[in-house]
Design brief:
The complex is a heterotrimer of chains A (262), B (148) and C (106).
Chain A: H1 3-24, H2 41-48, H3 55-66, H4 77-81, H5 84-87, E1 97-98, E2 105-106, H6 108-119, H7 130-141, H8 156-168, H9 178-182, E3 189-190, E4 193-194, E5 205-207, E6 212-214, H10 216-226, H11 237-249, E7 259-261
Parallel strand pairs in A: 5-7
Antiparallel strand pairs in A: 1-2, 3-4, 5-6
Chain B: H1 3-11, H2 32-38, E1 43-45, E2 48-51, E3 55-56, E4 62-68, E5 78-85, E6 92-97, E7 106-111, E8 117-125, E9 130-139
Parallel strand pairs in B: 1-9, 3-9
Antiparallel strand pairs in B: 2-4, 4-7, 5-6, 5-8, 8-9
Chain C: E1 3-6, E2 10-12, E3 16-23, E4 45-52, E5 55-62, E6 71-77, E7 82-90, E8 95-105
Parallel strand pairs in C: 2-8
Antiparallel strand pairs in C: 1-3, 3-6, 4-5, 4-7, 7-8
The chains are: A mainly alpha (262), B mainly beta (148), C mainly beta (106).
């Protein structure tokens, strides 16, 4: 065997090994970067400014709503959970997760609405409504700095696989999968923007493009519209499954909510 | 300015909303928005410092700081500071009115910028004189259409 | 209108006070269109004022050139103990009002 073909075989074997590992995680855990690393100094500083971060307007509202009685029960969130700063710390970092009672995969928004329906006799808050955004922002804020850690075992596994399949599937007129931008080309330019790794750790976030705070689901819809794919309706299970996959993919990244993004 | 409007503008198919000046033309002392304040008095460069980032992630919200060298005493202070855009549909973006009670002639805010442009800050001092500074900024547009 | 204010609760006589305010308001430019192509009417906070024990210490004319959820940072000098009153009004004549007390020591 000539030295050239031996080297070629070693190279192929080495590539096959790394490819097998890459199937596990498209971006290795030690190479994870939050979206803030791709922002200009102005927006990065704005996010870090606890006063001027516009998302804090919703966090403040959420704090009030937490203590407001709602629905037939006349109970408030605080009525059961007491002080959110102590009791809700770390909670948002573990969502989406399976609700043991119903067996459903819940994200933060649907968890809030489930509590309202079942425990408070209150009506569900609409997607992207000021109240739901405020409560989500407030809860996510309580996990500020906590590393994301979701459970993909047991009943969550099927949702995780479904979310992963969605992530790697091509969608829309531009026929792109999420991976095309956020795994194969993160760090590179798309027109004047630098493509991020697409992590969920800063959501809900104040998006400059929206000039308001919005949920992760809204951001995923925006991505779909960007690749000229049909935006699935709010509340579609595809979004929740995808959110679970994204949270797994971002394992260890600290929660930064409320984020500030372009 | 939205990317879609920008692209259709290029194709010539859409009439852009009426602007007070040709896009890109500089704000000068002769500009009617400036003249309305100065009444023709000379505006000199200096004393004012306008700070904007060189590159904005998004034109909807850009950090702006304007400061004027002044002891801010009753005899010598800044009366007002005005911000002008040479590209926004509304030229006079804001006016801030200070006085000796302000203590420091510095105002910060976040502004909307309809594309890459030069922003002008003009201050009037208590002696009636006008001073200005400009800052150039590149404003990038969003790469993807967002219809969420 | 929801607003956040950051300023010291107390200061020494003659000390410079930094005031920051963040107001929740869409600052609708009047140049945007809705889903069916109709122009969304302009509605911005057009005037803002800060009075210290009744005396105006800062005033601003604002336009659509100021970002949504407007942020302002300005200064005043600590005089007597008392109250700072922040008022603003938008194109629909909706008014905002916030008050903050300050204790000034000699």
């Amino acid at each position: 065997m000539s030295p050239g073909s031996a080297a070629a075989r070693i190279l192929v074997a080495a590539l096959a090994c790394t490819a097998a590992q890459a199937q596990e995680r498209g971006i290795p855990l030690d190479r994870l970067k939050s979206g803030s690393a791709f922002l200009g100094a102005d927006l990065r500083d704005l996010q870090a400014d606890d006063f001027a971060n516009p998302g804090m307007l919703w966090v403040e509202r959420g704090e009030k709503l937490w203590r407001e009685p709602a629905g037939k029960s006349e109970r408030s969130c605080a009525g059961c959970h007491q002080d959110a700063e102590t009791n809700m710390r770390g909670v948002a970092a573990r969502y989406p997760k399976i609700d043991p009672a119903s067996g459903k995969l819940l994200n933060l928004e649907s968890r809030i609405n489930l509590c309202r329906a079942e425990r408070m006799g209150a009506e569900a808050l609409r997607h992207e409504s000021e109240e739901l955004l405020a409560l989500t922002a407030y809860l996510a804020r309580q996990s500020h700095g906590v590393p994301i850690e979701v459970d993909i075992g047991g009943p969550a596994r099927a949702h995780f696989e479904s979310g992963r399949a969605f992530y790697y599937r091509r969608h829309g007129q531009l026929n792109l999968s999420c991976a095309h931008c956020h795994e194969a080309n993160w760090g590179r330019r798309l027109f004047a923007e630098t493509v991020t790794q697409g992590h969920p750790n800063a959501w809900p976030a104040y998006r400059m493009e929206w000039q308001t705070l919005g949920s992760l689901e809204r951001r995923l819809r925006a991505c779909l519209s960007g690749i000229r794919a049909e935006m699935l309706p709010y509340g579609s299970p595809e979004y929740r499954d995808l959110e679970l996959f994204l949270a797994w993919r971002a394992q260890g990244l600290p929660v930064e909510a409320p984020g500030v993004r372009r | 300015m939205r990317r879609r409007e920008f692209l259709t503008g290029l194709s010539g198919a859409i009439v852009l909303p009426a602007l007070p000046r040709a896009a890109g033309a500089q704000v000068t002392q002769l500009d009617p928005h400036v003249w309305a304040i100065t009444k023709g008095a000379t505006v000199r460069k200096g004393k004012v410092k306008l700070e904007l980032p060189q590159l904005a992630d998004n034109g909807n919200s850009v950090a702006m700081k304007v400061s004027v060298e002044s002891p801010m005493t009753a005899e010598d202070h800044v009366r007002s500071i005005h911000l002008f855009s040479d590209r926004n549909p509304v030229t006079r973006m804001a006016s801030f009115y200070l006085g000796p009670r302000a203590g420091k002639a510095e105002v910060s805010s976040r502004v909307r910028l309809a594309g890459s442009q030069r922003v002008t800050a003009m201050a009037q001092l208590s002696d009636g004189s006008f001073w200005s500074d400009t800052a150039e900024i590149v404003v990038t547009l969003s790469a993807c259409l967002d219809e969420s | 209108m929801a607003a956040r204010i950051q300023m010291p609760k107390q200061a020494r006589q003659g000390e410079l006070i930094e005031i920051r305010i963040l107001i929740q308001h869409p600052m609708e430019t009047g140049y945007r269109h809705d889903d069916v192509g109709h122009l969304i009417k302009r509605n911005v906070i057009n005037a803002f004022s800060c009075r210290y024990n009744g005396e105006e210490v800062f005033r601003a004319d604002l336009s659509s050139g100021i970002s949504a959820n407007p942020y302002l940072q300005f200064y005043t000098v600590a005089g007597a103990s008392g109250e700072l009153e922040f008022t603003w009004i938008d194109d629909e004549s909706k008014q905002g009002l916030e008050r903050q007390s300050i204790t000034v020591k000699a």
